[in-house]
Amino acid sequence: MRQQSKESIVILFVVGALVLNYPFLDLFDRAWLPFGIPLLYLYLYLIWLAIIALLVAIVERSEIHAPERPAPPLESAS
What we know:
Elements: H1 3-19, H2 22-27, H3 39-62
Helix pairs in contact: 1-3
C-alpha cells in the first residue's frame, strides 16, 4: 500500500470521527421525517455508507500492480 493511501485512510478516519460526533449529530437530531425515516438515522446511515464507499475507492486505487511481462517476439516462418 502506498504512503499516500495510508495518509488518505487516516484523514478519512479523522473526518469520519468528527462527523459522527456531538456537534454534527445535534444538527440532525430533528423531528423531521424524510421518507418516513428519522433525520438522525438517515444521516448516520448515509455518512456510514459514504465512509465505506470512500474507503473502498482509496484501497482499490492504492493497489500496486506488477508490471506485465511483454510478449515474446513472434518468429517469422520462412
